[in-house]
Amino acid sequence: MGPKFAVDFLAAGARSRPDAIGLDDGERTWTYREFDARVARAAGGLRALGITDDVVALVSETTAPAVVAVHAALRAGAVLAPLSPRLTVDELRDALDVLAPGLVLVGPDAWQRVVEAGVRPARVDAIEDWLSRAPAGRVTSGPERPPLPKGSRVVIWTSGTGGRSRGVALTLANLEANIRAAAARLALGPRDRWLATLELGHIGGLMLVLRAAATSASLVVQGRFLAEKAAALIACRSITHASLVPTMLQQLIEATGNGPTQGLGCLLVGGAACPRGLIEKALGAGMPLALSYGMTETTSQATTAPPALVREKPGTVGAPLQGLDVRVAKSGEVKVRGSTVAAGYVGAELSLLDSDGWLATGDLGEMDGDGHLWVSGRVCDRIVTGGVNVDPAEVEGVLLRHHGVFDVAVVGLPDDLWGEVVAAAIVRAAGEDPSPAELGSLARACLATAKVPRRWLFLVQIPRNANGKIDRDAVRLGFPTP
């Protein structure tokens, strides 16, 4: 069993490492003693304003004041609801109408959009000054908030991998279980220096912040992810750990130019399937990849392959974390249950668990003989052509074997005869020029006829969302009408 983390994630570091660096924003640093004092002032201010069991919405890049706000809201007893600073006005309005927060803390980049969404925001960079300010930021209109699942401490607003946006409610037990299990799997500890790369509205970004504090590590924050800044920090050995989605990993590889990465201990990659070509490129550059699989509903990681396993078996996302059971149903769908599975949804009449108590993830995969999970795609992405089921990831995996293919996305296109036909969008590797005939020949040698792409498109890059997942609707729109 790992260490038991208290409600206050900063407590251990403030006690055991008061003079160690807890927070670093690139301009100044705060020891754990100073960091804890900032959070104490902000939490006290929130309590003085009566913001205790309210929802506190936070719309900000990952800055030092925003990190203080995260810890202060949890310490004050509020329910924290971090929202992406890149949501549109309509998206913000929808989220805030459902969450009905008592306080909305906003960074400068999102200020105007939050105002246009009909809310009185308060500056996140003034959070420690609440005691000398008039109350601000309460929502002035909107429907009554639906009841939160019992024990909710965090609500992450997400659309998952498709469908209407909703909140995912996480309990303190969920947060602690994920931190404990991830720390054990990746041997995390107080010598780590984490670069906060993901936004707080992303479950991976929030858990990075909480995990760093709970393991008494140092947290480096620089706002929105910039690959050049990250590469510079890595080059001077100022960073040991970071969480990335695949698109960030690609940018980081380009920014480092295969430069030295000896100071790195772990690059935790998740949020979307990592293309095989990108994995090989990162490993070739000496990067210590840890591939993970999870989602907001599992409080981030459900399985994780540490760097040694990724080097041995590139592409696997590893075994389930402590406290979780992961199985693959007869249909091929991955299912999860255990200590990190969320308490429920907010703002949507959806059941989180199936009739047998499992979270049906909507992902397809298989377990190998060692109990390591390999994720192959999404149930909703499955193509049916002439009555044959085709999983895009299987076709993508074959095409990625070609040395001339850097990235690929496979989709189904409507067809009067077959219902759908398989189509492949290809990003060529640098200096390579594979033809459709050449790629088709490879596909025919490895796949059943129905799975061989009938249409081809060559792109500069594959459209992906902010988490690095393929935007298959955008890919389909790129194919010319026959």
Defining key terms:
4-stranded parallel β-sheet, single chain, 14 helices, alpha/beta, disordered N terminus, 482 residues, 9-stranded mixed β-sheet, globular, 26% strand
Set down the secondary structure blueprint.
Blueprint: H1 11-16, E1 21-24, E2 29-31, H2 32-48, E3 55-59, H3 64-76, E4 79-83, H4 89-99, E5 103-106, H5 111-116, E6 122-123, E7 152-158, E8 166-171, H6 172-186, E9 193-196, H7 203-214, E10 218-221, H8 227-235, E11 241-244, H9 246-256, E12 266-269, H10 276-284, E13 289-295, E14 300-305, H11 307-312, E15 319-320, E16 324-328, E17 333-338, E18 344-346, E19 359-367, E20 373-378, E21 383-385, E22 388-390, H12 392-399, E23 405-415, E24 419-428, H13 436-446, E25 455-458, H14 472-478
Parallel strand pairs: 1-10, 3-4, 3-5, 5-6, 9-10, 9-11, 11-12, 12-13, 24-25
Antiparallel strand pairs: 1-2, 7-8, 8-18, 13-14, 14-15, 16-17, 17-19, 19-20, 21-22, 23-24
Helix pairs in contact: 2-3, 6-7, 8-9
